[in-house]
TrEMBL record:
This is Alpha/Beta hydrolase protein. It comes from Mycena rosella (Pink bonnet). Keywords: Carboxypeptidase, Glycoprotein, Hydrolase, Protease, Signal. Belongs to the peptidase S10 family. The keyword Protein biosynthesis does not apply. One of its GO terms (molecular function) is serine-type carboxypeptidase activity.
Length: 489
């Protein structure tokens, strides 16, 4: 991967495959610095900092004729949720796409998925193998959508949300720059969704995301949980909680990530030489101190300062292997992984006609200007987001984290660390749990009742950051067993 040597931007490139796959410049260029003075805090009266006051639900396509790249019987719905802000203006428009289950969709579980980033489209995951179509690159480097052999729609309805508004096919003004505020939009969408699809309210509901989704998911779960408990809102709400979440290679705690970076990427999978690794060790105390200070006094300036302090801990421009998969060496031209074919296919006429999006509506697989950079300047990543899962876990939320063991961007050790720290009914059992080997898969550590556990970490061998791309069959199996409370193996 070729990077601009930019402290916060380089870190962001590790939080989502979509961003890192974009070619953002040569590592040989002069180092650039993000100018912290550019950060302008949003005023409390700014509608971007306030909850919506109304949501209008629109279906733009019923998809009864099937998706051209899937199976003939595949069905879907797609459309927009239009949000009216605190000033009475309908200014944000969130795109959604429901891929219906191939078997008994009215009773099948609902899996809601969104992208990482911050700023990645939700459509990357379904079109990487979890949906009815997967985008492959032909011999000429062009992208083409073909039937996915291991689609999650065999077992569940899959609902992709292009959130935060501004990514993918979503668009608007007064856009969010925090994961807490984007969670309001997701909850507002879901309330309208349950009204439009009342038969799904009775079904099992799971949220799935990865990478920066490790920040988004806790905020969404916490928002749904806390709003459900607000007495004044109960009369007007569909009280529906996700029964479980699946988090892939999840960035959910900056402190755990940096603390275990050296062990993960200099010892487990040595991405760097001895000199670079020694520099990482020397930089760790200042980095961890800055993150701790930002945790204790969480201002944008303090969080942003932690980005700068931790930049020397993640010198990916000096790695010789791809940070998303240790098995792949960087060629002489650099570790550039291009997702242009994905963006090209989703910008194509067939897709836009299928979902009822105007041909002039540009699809962005990564909304750098509208979402990524505002989140960077607000340093939203520097937070212990995992803590927000605690109340829902106490009320029965099941948590499955899976991690490719070849991933350097978000290594498994950082996920194990925060899972051991999270106070919950499962903490002691998880900390004392053994790690069981599964030949050909990896290892599993679990706590809680049932054959899959209720608080579970699966380390997947021979997989990097995008497990869905390299081990789609295994991931489909894990998802189905998790939903059905059946033994994984």
């Amino acid at each position: 991967m070729q990077y601009l040597i930019i402290p916060a931007l380089a870190l962001l490139s590790l939080l989502t495959p979509a961003f890192a796959y974009l070619h953002i410049g040569s590592a040989s260029q002069a180092a650039l610095k993000l100018d912290g003075t550019r950060f302008e805090p949003l005023l409390a009266s700014d509608p971007a900092t306030q909850p919506n006051i109304r949501t209008r639900f629109e279906i733009t396509s019923n998809g009864s004729s099937g998706l051209y790249c899937g199976k003939p019987e595949d069905e879907f719905n797609a459309g927009y949720a239009h949000f009216t802000n605190s000033e009475g203006m309908e200014d944000k428009h969130m795109f959604w796409w429901l891929f219906k289950a191939r078997h008994d969709p009215e009773n099948a579980p609902l899996v809601v998925t969104f992208g990482g980033g911050p700023g990645a489209s939700a459509l990357l995951f379904p079109f990487s193998g979890a949906g009815p179509c997967v985008i492959q690159t032909d011999k000429d480097g062009r992208g083409e959508a073909v039937p996915a052999p291991h689609s999650w729609t065999e077992n569940a309805n899959v609902l992709a949300l292009d959130q935060p508004v501004g990514v993918g096919f979503s668009y608007g003004h007064s856009l969010r720059n925090t994961s807490a505020a984007t969670a309001w939009d997701v909850d507002d969408f879901l309330q309208e969704f349950w009204l439009q699809y009342p038969y799904l309210v009775k079904n099992q509901f799971m949220i799935s995301s990865g990478s920066y989704g490790g920040v988004f998911i806790p905020h969404v779960v916490n928002t749904i949980h806390s709003r459900n408990l607000e007495g004044s809102a109960k009369a007007n709400r569909t009280i529906k909680m996700p029964e479980s979440v699946m988090m892939a290679n999840a960035w959910s705690d900056a402190q755990s990530h940096y603390l275990w970076f050296h062990q993960s990427n200099c010892v487990d999978n040595p991405f760097f030489n001895t000199t670079v690794c020694n520099d990482i060790v020397n930089a760790l105390p200042g980095c961890l101190n800055a993150v701790q200070y930002a945790y204790e006094q969480s201002t944008p300036a303090n969080r942003f300062a932690a980005f700068d302090a931790c930049d020397p801990v993640t010198p990916w421009e000096l790695a010789t292997r791809k940070n998303y998969d240790y098995r792949e060496k960087c060629p002489a031209t650099g570790c550039d992984m291009n997702l242009g074919p994905v963006e090209d296919v989703l910008n194509g006429q067939k897709i836009k006609e299928a979902v009822g999006v105007p041909q002039d509506r540009k699809f962005l697989i990564m909304a750098v200007d509208d979402i990524s950079m505002p989140f960077i300047y607000n340093a939203d990543a520097v937070q212990p987001a995992y803590l927000l899962l605690g109340p829902a876990i106490a009320d029965g939320l099941r948590v499955l984290v899976y991690n490719g063991m070849m991933d350097g961007a978000v290594p498994w050790r950082s996920n194990l660390a925060w899972m051991r720290l999270l106070q919950s009914p499962h903490q002691l059992a998880f900390r004392n749990a053994t790690e069981d080997d599964y030949p050909g898969v990896g290892t599993i550590r679990k706590a809680g009742a049932g054959p899959t556990g209720e608080f579970t970490l699966i380390k997947i061998a021979e997989a990097g950051h995008m497990v869905v791309r390299t081990r789609a069959n295994l991931l489909q199996h894990l998802m189905a067993q998790w939903l059905q409370h059946k033994p994984f193996f």
